[in-house]
Amino acid sequence: MRILVVEDDPDLARQLEAALGDAGYVVDLAADGEEGHFLGDTEPYDAVILDLGLPVIDGLTVLERWRRAGRSMPVLLLTARGRWSEKVTGFDAGADDYVTKPFQMEEVLARLRALIRRAAGHASSELSCGPLTLDTSRGRVALDGAPVKLTAQEFRLLSYLMHHQDQVVSRTELTEHLYSQDFDRDSNTIEVFVGRLRKKIGGDFIETVRGLGYRLAAAEKDAEGAGAKEGAQDAS
Ligand code: CA
Hints:
Elements: E1 2-6, H1 10-22, E2 26-30, H2 33-42, E3 47-51, H3 59-68, E4 75-80, H4 84-92, E5 97-101, H5 105-119, E6 126-129, E7 132-135, E8 140-143, E9 146-148, H6 152-163, E10 168-169, H7 171-178, H8 188-201, E11 206-209, E12 213-216
Helix pairs in contact: 2-3, 6-8
The structure holds calcium ion (CA).
């Protein structure tokens, strides 16, 4: 998942970048409203963290311009304490959520996770695809309940596919959402990561759709034989 942070306070911007990076996101930073507007207008982000008080173009104007141009990515506003009217105008301008400065980083991360999930149509923090589960709040993946260890890059890839399961996702789209602006992108590396991911979660989940990309879906066939489940008595 790729996040745009528009924040003119360099310390806060770096803190956000570091925390988001630790949480498995790739991050682009913009230090003023003009650059932020341009990036949000031209690059595909999974969510934006937007400060309201920005140089050159203020955050509210940036948000209004994106929405008018049909840019629909989730936007989390950073607002100043006590300025309740900012929140109202922010929501009216198309914001999805806000946090008040000074904030706890954990709250920003939790709100961001929720926005990204909901934008992809998932209400629960645990995403599942058949026996494969991804806990977005803890960053854990399990197969039939057993933990699967993934590298940061593999996790990012799986997370994007899980959020967009049953949809065909092109290599270009994956590249755009898994690498930041500054990264030297090579869509061939996506194939390498898909290959590694298949080895770890099993080959059936990620289908290659020739000429189009990949689709993550639960295998439809009943896997019989190996490892028959004992005492599976789901009430459902
Ligand atoms: Ca500011």
